[in-house]
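Milestone M4 deliverable, item 7.
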Amino acid sequence: MNPFRPGAHERHLLRRRDNPLFNKVLRRVEAEELAAARRRDEAEQEDFARQFRVLLDSALCLKPNEESQTLLDLKARLDQAYTQLASLGGDTEPFRQGLRRLTDTIIAAVRQAAARDPHALEELVHEQLAREQHYRLMEFPLVADLMRPDSPIAAEELPAALLSSSMEELEAAIWLFGPDELRALCHAARTLLSETGTDYGCENLVLLESHLSES
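Output delivered:
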């Protein structure tokens, strides 16, 4: 992972900068704005490092025969931390590997506790598959930015962000939206392209509408 990878706030400013799909105000991004966004992203990185140490301490304090609910609660916190980590800047790979190892350890303990319950074991298999899919989607910065509760991508900016993303990122992000949301996005995207009079993003609109027709 690139140690100079921008975080969510700087990344969205770069997404907007000189982008004809955003209005004139939003596409004009000053150096001071980028510097402020970078500082905000760096503060989030430092805050996450503190949170990670708390999670690590919680895992180290687990008893050999810990209650299943305690294990599941910690696993939920680890999943939430992984989602948060995905949108951060800098070199996140050590934290990523650490969270995966901790999650694998917790799952192994839960599986051991559920060894005599075939239904519970089946649920764990399905959950593991869903988690791996989630991990793959979170590799895409656009998806990670959209998954944040405080996403830097405002609702009215979403059509422009989707139309100006790479096809691969868009393909991943589409799965975040239900049919009704996708229909509204297609309409907004068509309107945006018509208003801006640009071909930039037309291929992405075709992909959006293709998924809509299949949903």
